[in-house]
Amino acid sequence: MNQVRGCNFTLASVPKEDPDVYAMIQRADTIATFQIESRAQMSMLPRLRPVRFYDLVIEIALIRPGPIQGDMVHPYLARRDGREPAVYPSEAVRGVLERTLGVTIFQEQVMQLAVVAAGFTAGEADQLCRAMAAWRRTGNLGPFEQKLSDGMRARGYPEEFARQVYKQIHGFGEYGFPESHSASFALLAYASAWLKLHEPAAFLCALLNSQPIGFYAVSQLVQDARRHSVDVRTVDVNRSEWESTLELTDQRQPAVRLELHMVHGLNQDIGRVIAAARPFRDVTDLARRTQVNRYAFKCLAAAGALAQLAGNRYQSYWSALGIEEPWALGSVDVQGSQALARRSHGGRGYRRRLCQPRPLLGTAPTRIVERAPGEAPRYDGSPTLARAQQRTGTGRGPRDPSSTSRQR
To answer: Do 211 and 166 contact (CB within 8 A), yes or no?
Structure first.
């Protein structure tokens, strides 16, 4: 994108707190963005409706096994919507939980509550944090339950609050986020959402060149980009590089040219050779100058990469089948495409048939052979008809019934 826009664009250059970005996030239009692309996150976004950066920090930390198991999601949403007041049993607890409306969401808050509400020392709070991370393996939270209960009771906190805190600790044992971790993720989530909104072509191009990655397949990414008015252009041997590229247009957004890498079964060495030898006038010129075998041509034709040379995908496929290839053995892709063909289609026999040029069925001229009076017409020159004649005896005169009997 730096080459297209002429500026050195970095993570620090992303404009902060863009309301249009948050509006897109609230609609859950977040396919392929960082962290907020999953179905669980996308179902939460319209309910939480982030309007600032710290809302994203909470959103990312909230949809985790820890807060879910600790029953923290619904109380937070109710307090954020104003359906339930945020209640703090003391000013010390308010100082710890006020930024999350009285709900424990981050690991640090659990440790701070243990210190301010139960009298834990800093060392004991660190031991509690380690026990939370390992309790599924060791079951080592029992001693802390009694200490939390005794400490909170001594400081005047109700028994219900102590049980609630311990339940949240158990939940964080299932996995919860530290606040700093969630803030780092939120920064990347916002930056990816900004790119998706303002630079969708560059965003798609980067995703395609980073595959496999994320929840979504390439076809889903391309469909989503086209719904956002991105011009996605098909693979073309005269224009595509091995990786996806941006092509300047008269519009603000460049077009995305799909890469040769997306052609299923195409070896990278072949892709490099094709990119170095172009432009090509037609399929025959491509075959002569690149000297790749028929299997590679069939892969290119099936992906539509030869459509500009042969008219359409189907015509290019038949053109590829009719190419003679005396150079195939020893060409650049023998260890690449033919090896893949051998693995995919069953060994040496397929490779031998693949490398030998074969005429298309029905291309040989068909002529009528002279026949005696009363004899059925006989045809020559068509392999299909010749085999039919052998099966039925058509054109060979009266048949001897004994010739068809099974020999025992």
So the answer is: no
Task: Sort 178 into a burial class: Cβ within 10 Å, 0-12 / 13-18 / 19+.
Answer: middle
Token output for 290: 């690149």
**φ, ψ (nearest 5 deg) of residue 257:** -95, 120
Among candidate residues 108, 130, 243, the one with its CA nearest the CA of residue 99: 108
With tokens 């100082």, the residue in question is 95
DSSP 233: E
Does residue 378 carry a pLDDT above 80? no
The DSSP letter of residue 249 is -
Instruction: List Cα–Cα distances, 279 to 245, 247, 266, 396, in angstroms.
Output: 17, 17, 19, 54
- Angle, CA 118 vertex, CA 88 and CA 161 arms, to 5°: 40
Identify the band that residue 341 occupies on the pLDDT scale cut at 50, 70 and 90: very low
Return the structure tokens found at 405.
């009997």
Entry field: residues in the chain = 408
DSSP 195: H
- Residue 26 predicted with pLDDT over 70: yes
Whole-angstrom Cα Rg for the chain:
34
Structure tokens at 191: 């930056």
Task: Select from 262, 190, 276 the least CA-distant residue to 233.
Answer: 262
391, 397, 364: which is closest to 378 by C-alpha? Answer: 397
Q: What is the layout of strands, in order, in the sheet containing 245-247? A: 232-233, 255-257, 245-247
Cβ atoms of 361 and 322 closer than 8 Å? no
CA distances from residue 197 to 23, 55, 201, 393, 408 in whole angstroms, order as listed: 10, 19, 10, 71, 78
- Residue of 179, 191, 39, 5 lying closest to 109 (CA atoms): 179
Token duo for residue 204: 């798609």
3-state secondary structure of 378: strand
Phi, psi of 81 (to 5 degrees): -80, -5
**Which residue's structure tokens are 């834990």?**
120
Quick one: pLDDT band at residue 160, thresholds 50, 70, 90?
confident
Place of tokens 């099974």: 406
pTM, two decimal places: 0.72
C-alpha to C-alpha distances, 188 to 2, 12, 44, 65, nearest whole angstrom = 19, 11, 18, 21
